[in-house]
Amino acid sequence: MTRARALSPHARMVLAVLLESRGEWSHGYELARRADVKSGTLYPLLIRLEAQGYLEAEWQQPSEGGRPPRHAYRLTASGVRLALDNPPDRVPVASDRRREATA
Amino acid sequence: MRGGLRRKLADLVCRALQATLPPSMRSWGWAVRCEAADIEDDTEALLFALDGLRGLLPRAIAARLFHPVARLIGSDAHPIGGSTTMNPHAAAMLRPRAVGIACAIGAVMLGLLYLAMAGAPALYMLVNGGALALGLTMLALLDRTVVAGSRPAGGAILVMAGAILLTALLGTRVEGAARWVSLGGLSIQPSLILLPVMLVAYARTRDAVATAGMVIVAAALALQPDRAMAGMLMAGLAVLAVMRPDRHALAALGVSIAAFAVTCLRPDTLPAVPYVDQIYYESFAIHAAAGAAVLGGSALLLLPAVAGWVREPANRAAYQVFGAAWGAAIAAAALGNYPTPLVGYGGSAILGYALSLLALPRPDAAPAAAGSQGRSASDTGPSDRHLLAGLA
Hints:
The complex is a heterodimer.
Chain A: H1 9-20, E1 26-27, H2 28-35, H3 39-51, E2 55-60, E3 70-75, H4 77-85, H5 96-102
Antiparallel strand pairs in A: 1-3, 2-3
Helix pairs in contact in A: 1-2, 1-4
Chain B: H1 5-20, H2 26-38, H3 42-72, E1 78-80, E2 83-85, H4 88-94, H5 96-118, H6 122-144, H7 153-170, E3 172-174, E4 177-183, E5 186-188, H8 190-204, E6 205-206, H9 208-223, H10 227-243, H11 247-265, H12 279-286, H13 288-300, H14 303-311, H15 316-335, H16 347-358, E7 377-378, H17 385-391
Antiparallel strand pairs in B: 1-2, 3-4, 4-5, 6-7
């Protein structure tokens, strides 16, 4: 059951960051940094978005030994629509990936 | 492998978070822990973990507190991808019984506010609070009592009617009225505890045995005499007779009208008891907020009937009988020296309200056959017959 309640600025920003990832998986710390939200704000948001079907999450095994697995997130089709319908008031922090590409 | 105090603290915080989260949310605790472990900077990792704990701890506590209530009302949180999804408002609106639990809690709280503002003895507030805890516990325990293929609801109604009749014959007598029994130094009123649940149960299952129970309880209330409870019986059965006009309901209504007439003819000289009777008037004299608390608490009692009417058209009779019963109790308290349910001092009404919620249809009950009549007119789904049997 989805709610018609207006999204908070933080939620809009997190959605925008996820939208910018264009279907790539994102991780919690990176999301928090780019959306400029604290982890205590981010995770309840992610839980809610996932529960409402706007977000999918998966566990990813580490690429190198000795590192922990990562919980990764990306928008579902309805999440993309939600993000497009609720743009943030400001531009998210650019990702490391993009910075590398434009340097 | 990274060490250091801050790193260890971060890990400790994450472990604490994981321990706090309910199983359905534990993967999110792992997510925070693994993410913190992957952060290179120790201070950043500690701050990430601490803020994760700050954000998720209230949710974890709420989930743990809400889980028993959710089980009670039959609306378990359902995991979606390892998350706990529960919109309490939506769940409540889907399940009028949940509305009733919330209303009971709200009404008792407003009552406590009135009692505190009125300067009632602390014991009174303890009794009301204790009765609420006991009532909700009984509701939870009886709700879980599964007696497969057990005694039908008619038997339960008959047993409860017998208890009220015994009160009329052997109960504590005050100025000619025998409505109470003394338990552990407290006077309780069995009719106020049992009659609402009997009426709602009868609205859902009517047969010869259950109708006999209603006749017995009508006689008992005339004997006591108790005009308020006889009025509750008559009001509940009148609503039932309008919505389900079968011979059982009509016969029971006829007897209840006679019983109410008897109570009206017999004198009722009991004086008002402070903090129990006449508080609709007195509360406003104390303070407008106290009066508003009393009125608001009383209005809450009727909300489950409204929610049931809106959400469960197939079970409207049960919800309207519930509303009529408690509406009659409120009217009696407004018109005479009778207990003000839930907001005034007295545990019997609180227990009675909780028990009457037990008889409301369960969410998974089979839809009722509207207007069903016959030898046994039943609106009871197979999944909740045990509730009524558990009362017997």
